[in-house]
Write the structure tokens for this entry.
Amino acid sequence: MTAPAIVRRGVTARGSAPAGRRRGWRQDLTGWAFAAPFVILFGIFLALPILVSLLMSFTSFGLRDIQNPLGTSVVGLKNYTDLLSDPKFWKSLGNTAYFVVIGVPVTLALGLLIANALSRGITRFRTAFRVGYYLPVITSIVAIAVVWRFLLNPDIGLINLVLAKVGVSGPDWLANPALAMPSIIAMAVWRNVGFAMVVFIAGMQAIPVVLYEAASIDGAGRWASFRNVTLPMLRPTILFMLVITTIGYLQLFEEPFVMTKGGPLDATLSVTMYMYQQGFTFFHQGYASAIAYILFLIVATIAFLQFRFLRSDDA
Amino acid sequence: MTALATRPPAPPAPSRSTGRPSYGAWWVYGLLIFGILLMVGPFLWMLLGSLKPQAEFLVNPPTFLPKDPTTDNFGRLFGNLDFPRFFFNSSVVALVVTVGNIVFCPMLGYALAKLQWRGKRLIMGLVLATLMVPAGITLIPNFVLMRNLGLVNTYPGLILPFLVGPFGVFLTRQFMYGIPDELLEAARIDGANEWRIFRQIVLPITVPVLATLGILTFLGSWNSFLYPLVMAQEPQMYTLPVALATFATGQYQADHGMLMAGSVVLVVPVLIIFILFQRWITQGIATTGLKG
């Protein structure tokens, strides 16, 4: 490298208006060299599959096509039209919606309450509480589902054991079509409330203390300052968490897989679980790709709406 | 993304700044302690269950504390079943994935934060767009690809797609964006090339973020289920979650003691990592608002 070149690069880069910067092919090469590992792995295992998944959803791809993927036959929109008249698919969509519509608000509301209690309600043992509530978030959903299935066991589970102590005969939670999904929702709330809490605590730390001081001078109590200071200031964080949690919950899989196998009577069959069954139990991989793509479109729409919402928020 | 998501990581700060002079109402403590009991209860139930002999699950009324504690369940996991192998598989996959992310993510993070190059905006857009892609969408094509590459039931098959992820790129990029340009300019004037600047100036400053990234990546990989469920079809390639789920839904579904012991094996290493590094973890989450 020659001395003038260094000086030139130094000087051009120092002018901090990006638009007016001269970009040489060397800089492009350096940039792409740093990006290479990501671009290669990302291209092969993420970008390409997203495209291939779409193409596969227009084929009758099945077990015999795995050795020779290009030999599969194109069936156009058949998978999608079949899905529209597939009661199991609608059932799985409804179950997933049920899980999201009840699970997300409950998770966020509880997370917000705990975060508020830890940030403004108490002054001691905050770290201990935070660690305790966060504990389930980092543990394997499979392990937690196995433990909860045992907790909910009608005969020897802890929950019915406690109910029996107070004279209530507990139901068979996971075998009852009306109670299986609420049980799974309770477990999901238990596992994820700590995540919401941590993000809300971070959001609350950014709220200026003077706002609370002003509210208290105006005679606001605990509830009034929560309603009139915390909630409005936290709006972007709440919106963000709403979207993140919704996207996560839309992908419900491990819990029904381990606890109910989708039953009883398909009461806990989720979209991802139905996709897994079609793709890897029945090897209808074209059909499964169509299911995956519909879920992808739902998630993408929500992510897009988030982008819109939060953009207008920043402005 | 959000104000929350674009704030660069700061050192863990005490959360007392909004505290009141009083210690808070007693009933708030009461409710919080009740909540903690609900949080910790299932873990205790798991631990106690793992120590109960098989016969104790049949007595009526059921016991809470084991009457006759035993390590038989763990003995069966590691003796009769192949849990040492599953533990090894999970460890190899999680460690290699973690190293891959620690090495590759900051490279792109640096290029996105501090270098000017054509295509940068496109790549940044892709990173942001794929932060939220559901795992299900890539599952089937990756399975077909891996089958044709002969990588189903191999370590590369379990590892390759996760060696670099958008989350790590985003996390490191956000941090590096806050490094003053003057620091890098000084090195450029001294004749250092970009690779040297990255290695000798940027990476050392980024170590705390890499620690957060490493821990979150390890936990995410250790706990991941759907992908290894599909990609590890031979029992000798099972990871711990796949093995536990397979046993829990198959021939051992009524063997409560052993299933609780299996859950302990899956959960305890993670709890140890969490208790040792909890500040890094909650800090990383608070910084990006995303999980690993």
Notes: Residues 1-21 of chain A have pLDDT under 50 and may be disordered. Chain A touches chain B through 124 residues (CB under 8 Å).
